[in-house]
From TrEMBL:
Keyword terms of this UniProt record: ATP-binding, Coenzyme A biosynthesis, Cytoplasm, Kinase, Nucleotide-binding, Transferase
A GO molecular function held by the record: ATP binding
Lineage per the UniProt record: Bacteria, Bacillati, Bacillota, Clostridia, Eubacteriales
Natural source organism: Desulfoscipio geothermicus DSM 3669
EC number(s) per entry: 2.7.1.24
Major localization class: cytoplasm
Protein's name according to its UniProt entry: Dephospho-CoA kinase
Gene: coaE
Length: 204
């Protein structure tokens, strides 16, 4: 049994790598999905968010207006810090519970915590190993433009808002370069699976 934190910056293809690992037999927890769950209607997370930012952040159906929330915090570091102070402890709590459940059940050979902010939030301390998905910066910009239908300038602004990729490398036990074809990435993932999951000493 192994718990891995899988991280990578926007446009790195981290989610594609997570899908590959899932197809190979891993259990994957997507913290972006957990982040949505912790602010679902009726949760303490949503109640705290409304108390902090006002009812304007709610849609008519009582769910969080995520695009509006993103707009509020994107250019306001203080607002982002307030939101993170609400959401991140809730996410950590759910991830910790999932890791504890996995270690009790051991239903699959690998648990992957897919988290873009794994290192920034300190969640890398909760996992056994950190796997970092990297990408060539030029390809990263192209992917963001294609995926988000945005301009190169907006893509670079999103990249610059994150912890630099090179600053994450020292935290990584494994690096997966996703600058090439999906086949090349899959080849790397299979090799890491063989080295870290299939070897008996990896299970110790």
């Amino acid at each position: 049994m192994l718990v891995v934190g899988l991280t990578g910056n926007i446009g790195s293809g981290k989610s594609s790598v997570a899908r590959m690992l899932q197809e190979m037999g891993a259990t994957v927890i997507d913290t972006d999905r957990v982040a949505r769950d912790v602010v679902a209607p009726g949760t303490p997370g949503l109640q705290k968010t409304v108390a902090c930012f006002g009812r304007q952040v709610l849609k008519n159906d009582g769910t969080l207006n995520r695009p509006l929330m993103a707009q509020i915090v994107f250019n306001d570091p203080a607002a982002l810090a307030r939101l993170n102070a609400i959401v991140h402890p809730e996410i950590r709590s759910r991830v910790a519970a999932a890791i504890a459940d996995y270690k009790r059940s051991g239903s699959t050979p690998l648990l992957v915590i897919e988290a873009p902010l794994l290192i920034e939030t300190g969640m890398h301390k909760m996992v056994d190993r950190v796997w970092l998905v990297t990408v060539d910066p030029r390809i990263q910009v192209q992917r963001i433009i294609a995926r988000n239908h945005t301009t190169a300038e907006q893509a670079r602004k999103r990249i610059s808002a994150q912890m630099p990729q090179e600053d994450k490398i020292p935290y990584a036990d494994r690096i997966i370069d996703n600058s090439g074809s999906p086949e090349k990435t899959l080849q790397q993932v299979r090799q890491i699976w063989s080295d870290d999951i299939e070897r008996p000493e990896a299970q110790a």
